[in-house]
Amino acid sequence: ETFRRIVKNKSTGEFECLPYICTLLNTLLWTYYGVTKPGAYLVATVNAFGVVVETTYIILFLRYASRKVKCKTAQLVVSLDIISFAAAVLITHFALDGDAKINAIGFLGAGLNIVMYGSPLAAMRTVVTTKSVEYMPFLLSFFLFLNGEVWFFHAVLVGDPFVGVPNGIGFIFGIVQLSLYARYRSSTSSSSSVASPTDPLLLPSPLPATF
């Protein structure tokens, strides 16, 4: 929806690039984790697809962004997705080995996942404050719930706490969001019915889209 608007308007408007850049870093880390850990090919495959998707999003963002925003976006991509990821790979590859290497990558990925899963808190606060779900789309809440649920139970089955903990948190946030949606979906809001680009959930959410 966000990029349909961007392509249609041929402008990024007030949309932020950071969520997509952070999600790309997240999928890169989890792809590296999946490749490094024996038997974690599902994690690697799904997140490798996420790398392709997020890279496409960023390219489209750069295509339609203003010159100033392009410079900012390029700097963030270089610093976070290239330099930071390369540093993580080099340090873990040459300084660590075996379980220590896998654990280090897992902690990095899980930490970033938890931070990214915290983004719905602002949306939930807005829903409670306005008593309206107009800024919390149902599909976003549903897929947050579904994504967290699937990966949490996958982690339980394979015994992987690095996958389980952050996605368990996402699963809980998803349940809370769906509960809020059920509670306030019939309520009317005193605010405008058309969300502006700076409303909490109209901004691209930095949730791990593929993990």
UniProtKB/TrEMBL annotation:
Keywords: Membrane, Repeat, Sugar transport, Transmembrane, Transmembrane helix, Transport
InterPro entries tied to this protein: SWEET, SWEET_rpt
Compartment(s): Endomembrane system
Main location: membrane
Pfam families, per the entry: MtN3_slv
Cellular component per GO, a single term: endomembrane system
Gene Ontology MF annotations: sugar transmembrane transporter activity
Keyword Transmembrane helix set for record: yes
Record field: transmembrane: 12-33, 39-62, 74-96, 102-123, 135-157, 163-182
Protein topology in the membrane: Multi-pass membrane protein
Family under the similarity heading: Belongs to the SWEET sugar transporter family.
PANTHER family: BIDIRECTIONAL SUGAR TRANSPORTER SWEET17, RAG1-ACTIVATING PROTEIN 1
Protein name: Bidirectional sugar transporter SWEET
Origin species: Papaver somniferum (Opium poppy)
